[in-house]
Amino acid sequence: MTASLDLGVHNLRSGYRAGSLDCRTVVDEVLKRIAAAGDDKVWISRAPDAALRAQAAALDARRGEIEKLPLYGVPFAVKDNIDVAGLATTAACPGYSYEPQISAEVVKRLVEAGAIVIGKTNLDQFATGLVGVRSPYGVPRNPFDATFVPGGSSSGSAVAVSSGLVSFSLGTDTAGSGRVPAGFNNIVGLKPTPGLFSNAGVVPACASLDCVSVFALSCADADAVLGVACAPQATPAIGKTFRFGVPKPLEFFGDDAYATLYAGAIEKLKALGGTAVEFDYAPFRYAAQLLYAGPWVAERTAAVGAFIEGADDNAKVWPTTRQIVEGGRKYSAVDAFEGQYRLAKLKALAAAEMQGLDFLALPTAGTVYRLADLEREPVLYNSHLGHYTNFVNFFGLSGLALPFGFRPDGMPFGITLIARAFAERTLLAFGARWQRAVPLPLGKTASRLPAPAHDPVVAEDRVSIAVVGAHMSGLPLNGQLTELGGRLESTGKTAPVYRFYALPGGPPHRPGMVRVADGVEGGGAIDLEVWSLPADKVGAFVSKIPAPLGLGTVALADGSGVLGFLCETYAVAAARDITSLGGWRAYVKSLAV
Fold this sequence. Notes:
alpha+beta; Amidase signature (AS) enzymes; 2 domains; elongated
């Protein structure tokens, strides 16, 4: 096998199923690539070559079980703050090193599904940083330009995937560590909702916010890992039309190229059916600042502060890491409670800004820095990279980093989609659409997207609602539908069994539609529009409907029925009968004559 081997999860499985590929060949190719990469600073430790070949041979002997092993023969890397039995856990601090007897729960699940751990990857020490340079094991080489940072803290894990050394990798994400490295390495970064993946066997950074993350070349591959690592919840799809949030103000720290690329990404989302909605970024930004300029720093102190304070020079504690972790001692219990109160208020404000949006579309980072830049400003520039990431786990949201393009100097740029909790599969399904609409190299490899049949698919859980009045397109109350993700599905008429009235009161002026009794003449066919809403938004819509209106089954001209607006009969006694006009638009037009 040659370097042309495509290590994509689904591409490997296709080869295994066809009998054209075996696990020993894949492991040999991975070892050749690692050797060819040289001293790239990606690995802190690796499984011995002989042990890897033995695992491959054992899997080859189980070829008949491939359908029971969804990650059969798939090589992956693990960030070195996640336990793997038989390999030391260092969290990028030699003095902290220990030998775990059992693997972290998420690693155990992946291995039981047939995946092969190649080794442990480099990181910002104790997962404290977004730059990827805070490690005594060196700086993992950014495959696009070694003078630029790889992004952190999951630096080695991202570079291993982008460089084509493994099929996927595990990172962790507290403040953006599963997203910023994805953006700087032109790969996919899935940040699950905190708590979705088990944190058992993970060295804590900020335990209340930490989560294990996934790096992959494609959303389809990330979805394959998601399905093994946890039991993802069923979630509705993002429809052919959708609403997404664009933050105001935007901040690119003087990087005009990134600003231009972001504007292009917004236009691409619009071309895919999206409507851009500006939202106030202030509550998100203020929450982000709490992580490193608030009492949550003390949670990092609680995790490893005692070790760092007692460590001597031989432990090789990184100076910036020591400065940050020891800084948590200045916060009091009162500060912690006040921070919680402040966060609760910001979370409520942020939820209001996200109302009616399918997701937020943010730059993964506002800029990218050179290694030399970080030598001058190790803390300030790190904080810049967290401008669009630090708030997400505070608010319990899910996120997906996606590639978009490249600056003129060849450095990658990406966007991150942020959605409600447990929307991972929804984001991945949309991300697969995105990757097919935005053809790019996968990382720094020659790999190709898997066949479309492997793209994650989720059902569109939507409810159709017929509207006959002010909720129709272009009329005063239509915004109540569009703000909740409403989508116009069709236009038509009711069956000729309704009387139609202009109800007193307003504005806004509303109609009332009442069905005539069976066998009674005098009904008419009324113009209507059928809209659909995400199922989880129907309750919010119903809460806006005042008496005497309500929802019931409306008979359509084609003989079918759909949920729609009806009126209680008592309310039409003093109303004007406008059945002869055939619809609300005709009535509104008649008033203007």
